[in-house]
Amino acid sequence: MSTQLQSSHATPAVHELEPLFEEAARASGSSRALKAGYLNAIIARWVQTEDPSTLAPALHALLAKEGVKQLVDEQGTPVSAAATQALLAMSYPHPLEVAPEHLEALRKHTEPSVPPAPKGWILTVLVVATLIQAVYFFLADDMRHMFGATAEQLAGESGLAPPGGGVGFFDRLEMVAWRPVRSLVPWVQVVGSAVLYFFSTAFATKAWERTLVRRGFLGLGVLGLMVGVLPRHVYENCGTLVAALGALLAGWMLRVPKPSAPPSA
Hints:
Elements: H1 2-7, H2 17-26, H3 29-49, H4 52-63, H5 79-88, H6 100-110, H7 119-147, H8 149-154, H9 169-182, H10 185-202, H11 207-227, H12 234-253
């Protein structure tokens, strides 16, 4: 459809770029995408026909417009990406004048999509790890109910000072800083894994998005390994470590495949 629209209009002059953008920005629905496609096609044609010293300032002014990144054609190409590509295709020194943020936006747009995440395997790993974690924490809670304060005293978790000794600095630090947050550890692991799984399967289609989610899983796993060796009930430690290993395995499964090398001659 955009080709038909191009053929029905004569190529406008460069000074008409701003009115064309305003017209496309005011449109809505399919008309908006159609006008954005026409604008992208005109920019690509101008690169071959217009004087760079005249076209470059017009493109820079377009990139400074509010909403230029949200104006997208039917193929999903923003007008800002088309303008940036046009500037990069010009002769020196115009490619050097492109702002870093526009280069980064173009890189993210043109970066190839990665294969879908193995959501079935990731979900299985996370569910199994969460179930094992829940069993361990249930056992730890059951042990505390069975043995009461005696088990806590034996584990060094009671607020009662042992006979003949006082409470040291690290004991006080543990009571003030660690105990209030220790009950939040399993919830942070479960909710963090659920959120990262949702983003990895619903939104992370580009390599850089997949890398961010993967780093999130790996960070959650490393944090779990660190917390899993702090003084707590042994079952709580085991549950935390199992959940951490599940997050690390999910991160490993989200590794971005390397592009295949071209065949040798």
